[in-house]
């Protein structure tokens, strides 16, 4: 039997429990709860301290939304938590398999009580939880298969990608689709073009927002073959086909689809003292890098600082200009010096009043 001991408050300060643990028994674990929309690196640090002090943890409740049990899914922070639990062998239970009308519920209101749910009966939280559980052992990257034109390329059969996730689809034929696409994300594919010429490229897309745009390009960004605006289709699983004509050279080549405009979520409500940390990034060589930020601000006056998560070292600060609206975007940039190797970057809000969509690093030759 396993005895699971609660920790205060709301099963979070496991580091305190680890400083005065129950002794004399080998079957004790301590509870840890997190909600990705509210709890970030600081709580993982507490958990790391607790494990370093020798106690076992069991995440008896976690959600991909806010601590209230409601709100939208924070897929990025959820991924950080999942990676943390995998790396440390922590068992866990997602909240909650019910059809209550709130963000944490896995099922849509009125879903069957007898199981057998299809993707249309899963909420965004439920869909993400299902994908996490289904792939918990770690799914190897898809085999990169060269496709000879004309043929259909399944979006999830990418050779390389940045930023996207696969999910089950309700579109004709079933299987999976690529989702959670934000500005700057991309997928690359290997194709063999039988003969040079003009080709009609059709895409099967779904979007619950307007304004997104994709770009077909050579892997790496150039040349660009063309771009298309993604229409609002009525939902993330409401599908339509769009197409354009492009000119391709003959032979084997790696092409990529990139999100020119994601049409997804941005970070907002930023106040002085707020901060964000991001997954580890490998900098291949030391040198000067241009860092670009996609920002929006009604009145300007904001300021951000790029730093290593935790605050040290600091790489440089930049002012946020007035753009005229919370969804009126511009790109700002500055140059920073970075060492080679793995970096876990953080962005600290020195002065608030702005939104952030993405940031990008480019080596300056």
Number of helices: 4
Low-confidence stretches: 139-143
Can you tell me the CATH superfamily of the largest domain? Glycosidases
- According to CATH, what is the topology of the largest domain? TIM Barrel
What's the structural blueprint in terms of helices and strands?
Elements: E1 3-5, H1 14-18, E2 28-35, H2 41-52, E3 56-63, H3 75-88, E4 92-94, H4 124-134, E5 147-148, E6 160-162, E7 165-168, E8 176-179, E9 186-193, E10 197-207, E11 212-218, E12 224-230, E13 235-248, E14 251-261, E15 275-277, E16 281-283, E17 287-296, E18 302-308, E19 314-320, E20 330-338, E21 341-343, E22 345-351, E23 355-363
Parallel strand pairs: 1-2, 2-3, 3-4, 5-9
Antiparallel strand pairs: 6-9, 7-8, 9-14, 10-13, 11-12, 11-14, 15-22, 16-21, 17-20, 17-23, 18-19, 18-22
Question: Your description of this structure?
Answer:
The protein is mainly β and 365 residues long. The protein folds into three domains: 3-134, Alpha-Beta Barrel (TIM Barrel), CATH 3.20.20; 147-261, Jelly Rolls; 275-363, Sandwich (Jelly Rolls). It has four helices and 23 strands. The chain has helices at 14-18, 41-52, 75-88, 124-134, and strands at 3-5, 28-35, 56-63, 92-94, 147-148, 160-162, 165-168, 176-179, 186-193, 197-207, 212-218, 224-230, 235-248, 251-261, 275-277, 281-283, 287-296, 302-308, 314-320, 330-338, 341-343, 345-351, 355-363. Strands 5, 6, 9, 11, 12 and 14 form a six-stranded mixed sheet that branches. Strand 1 (3-5), helix 1 and strand 2 form a beta-alpha-beta unit. Mean pLDDT is 86; it is low at 139-143.
């Amino acid at each position: 039997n396993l005895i699971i001991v609660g920790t205060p408050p709301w099963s979070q300060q496991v580091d305190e429990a680890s400083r005065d643990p129950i002794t004399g028994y080998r079957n004790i674990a301590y509870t840890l709860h997190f909600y990705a929309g509210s709890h970030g690196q600081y709580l993982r640090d507490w958990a790391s301290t607790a494990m370093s002090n020798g106690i076992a943890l069991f995440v008896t409740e976690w959600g991909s939304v806010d601590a209230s049990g409601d709100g939208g899914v924070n897929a990025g922070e959820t991924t950080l938590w999942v990676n943390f639990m995998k790396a440390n062998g922590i068992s866990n239970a997602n909240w909650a398999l019910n059809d209550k009308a709130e963000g944490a519920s896995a099922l849509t209101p009125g879903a069957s009580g007898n199981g057998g749910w299809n993707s249309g009966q899963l909420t965004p939280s439920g869909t993400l939880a299902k994908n996490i559980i289904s792939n918990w052992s770690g799914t190897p990257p898809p085999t990169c298969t060269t496709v000879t034109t004309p043929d259909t390329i399944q979006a999830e059969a990418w050779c390389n990608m940045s930023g996207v996730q696969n999910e089950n689809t309700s579109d004709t034929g079933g299987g999976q689709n690529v989702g959670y696409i934000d500005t700057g994300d991309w997928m690359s594919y290997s194709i063999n073009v039988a003969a040079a010429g003009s080709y009609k490229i059709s895409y099967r897309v779904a979007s619950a927002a307007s304004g997104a745009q994709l770009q077909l390009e050579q892997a790496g960004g150039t040349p660009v073959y063309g771009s298309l605006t993604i229409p609002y289709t009525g939902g993330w699983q409401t599908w339509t086909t769009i197409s354009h004509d492009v000119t391709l050279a003959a032979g084997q080549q790696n092409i990529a689809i990139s999100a020119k405009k994601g049409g997804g979520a941005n970070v907002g409500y930023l106040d002085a003292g707020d901060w964000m940390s991001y997954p580890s990034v490998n900098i291949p060589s030391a040198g000067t890098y241009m860092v670009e930020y996609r920002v929006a601000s009604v009145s300007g006056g904001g300021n951000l600082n790029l730093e290593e998560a935790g605050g040290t070292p600091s790489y440089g600060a930049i002012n946020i200009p007035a753009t005229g609206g919370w969804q009126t975007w511009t790109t700002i940039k500055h140059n920073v010096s970075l060492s080679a190797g793995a970096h876990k970057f953080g962005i600290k809000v020195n002065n608030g009043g702005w939104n952030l969509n993405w940031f990008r690093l480019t080596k300056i030759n």
